[in-house]
Amino acid sequence: MSVPVARDADTHRLLPWPPAGAIVLETRGLVRDLGTTVKSRILDGIDLTIREGEFVSLTGFSGSGKSTLLYLLGALDRPTAGEVRIDGVDIGSLDDDGRAALRGAKLGFVFQFHFLLPEFTVLENVMLPILRRGARTRSDAEAHAREVVESLGLGELMQRRPSQLSGGQQQRVSIARAVANDPRIILADEPTGNLDSMNGMIVMDVFERLARVQGITVVMVSHERSFAQRTSRQLVMRDGQVVEDLDQR
Amino acid sequence: MSRVVFFIAMRQLWDRKLLNGIAVCGVSLGVLTLIAINGIMQGFQHKFIDNILRISPHVTLFDRQLRPAPPLLARAYDGFVVTDVAHQSPSERNLRISRPEEIVRALEDMSEVVAASKLLVGSAVISRGSQQFPVEVRGIEPTRQDRVTPIASYLQVGNYHTLEASPDAVVIGSGIASRIGAHLGEVIVCGSSLGTRLNLKVVGIYESGIPPVDNHRVYVTLRNAQALLGRPDAVGRIEVKLREPDNAQVMSSKFEHMFAYDGESWQETNANFLALFVQQNAIIGFVVGAILAVGGFGVLAIQIMIVLQKTRDIAILRSVGFRRSDILGCFLLQGAIISLAGAAVGDIAGHYVIQMLGKLKSRTEGLVKSEYFLVYEDPRYYYYGFAFALSVGLLASLIPAVRGSRVEPVDVLRGQLG
Predict the structure, then answer these.
(1) Which of B129, B289, B390, B394 is most exposed by smallest CB count within 10 Å?
(2) B134 burial class (0-12, 13-18, 19+ CB within 10 angstroms)?
(3) Is A134 an 8 Å CB contact of chain B?
(4) Chain A residues within an 8 Å CB radius of B7
């Protein structure tokens, strides 16, 4: 069960990063306060632009605001102030259903814990977002889900339930679910945080391939310095602000 | 609701077979109770009302005049004003219905009326040898009366129509026959409080299934009853059978207005029993409602538990594009399926319980007589079972479904929920 990596078949060298394209994620003066009685400022005026094809890692100490920024970039949360634009759409202008539709069409999520639905097989877990989007018939959705699952080296596990998989396999299934609807952006919140180093490497290979080969924009929160160094751009956060923006191409 | 929501709902239901099976059992028990208890209660009530409607008239006109005739002087001289200056002493005359044949014909001409018949009713004692027994004597016109209350169809032995042909015939109830040991063809003596005695030949023994009737009522010809009770040519009441028994109260008022005699519908005659039935039904409704509500609480508890367990799944579904309405629909659908499955199981079990009870030998004596357990299968209650179960199930699912739909994925991801 091999995982395809982003290397040239002949030279075995890493494929080059695709050229940065149009702006897909943009924030202006983004502020997020949390707490009901005592408010604490988690994000403090972030201006950020992420382009198509970039593989961005968000790093920083715990509490620096990485995950909060990721949830706002994913339209899972609403900003206290400022603006988030996903593919040109201001999420503040969308209602709840509009944001759900946007997530289903343009975004894919991978979390630290796989959050796979335990009642469904691997194939069905991957099919659910496709079916919800409603753009394909059931048989088309199944065929596409099979393709995605196989592309991540999980072909033999399709009919298994999440409880019958290892942690690394579960995380790869959650990546398959994230890419099932051919999203423009994948947002990953410490996807390797719950894995051993071997499985962590495999998951990173998958992300790198998605970014380098398929040109999908990936934004990943990570504590692992070595994994962050494998991305094309690293944003270092501290106290709710982006303090460093490193181009690592 | 999209097909994928249906798919998720069905899979989650199937994956928690035990829990959901318990919820289905709770609902089906409520529906079964609804059907079985109503079947039992309706069984007795229907039998009673059915018997009453067959052996009793729908409307009876009594000999009490509603508009008394004006004083003699006022009748003799037009416009004469008469004032009572003393309390009138009660009349010694027996009450009777004037021109009864005209009233019967007028009634039979009405489209709402099937038949009408004249009667004279009084008390007597019948004796056979040393056996004596007080009875209610009903003097009837046999052919007409049979069209109002089909006594002939209740005859166990004998020939009802002999009553008309034979001048000294009597038809007695089965209870009376067994008490005095009378058989068909035997002669019994019937005596009134006036001392009149008639020798009557038993030409028929009937059993209506209503013990108070079978144990106390004998039928003779109107002429014999008039002779026995010392009221020649008197008619004490007129009994009427209607095409629509449920209209009896309206028709009774109409007859009162037309003929100025006191009328009584079968509902008024049996008002005590009918009021008792209403009260019984209300109590049963309350008990069954409570049982269904308990079933609903079962669904509520299980659904809340599932929503709490599923908070993370809800969060992930929301993050991949599912809307709040999808989550709401998913849990409501599960509640509806549990309710409908419970209703179906309850309806089927209820049907078999009713069938089984109906075959159970249980001798009933009292207001009605029956060899078997009295049950009545009313198809409406199967629909009621479905409707109640669905309402209770949906209502019970609503709280957890709304709760589930309000889950904010970001709260779960931050670890504040789930």
Answers:
(1) B129
(2) exposed
(3) yes
(4) 131
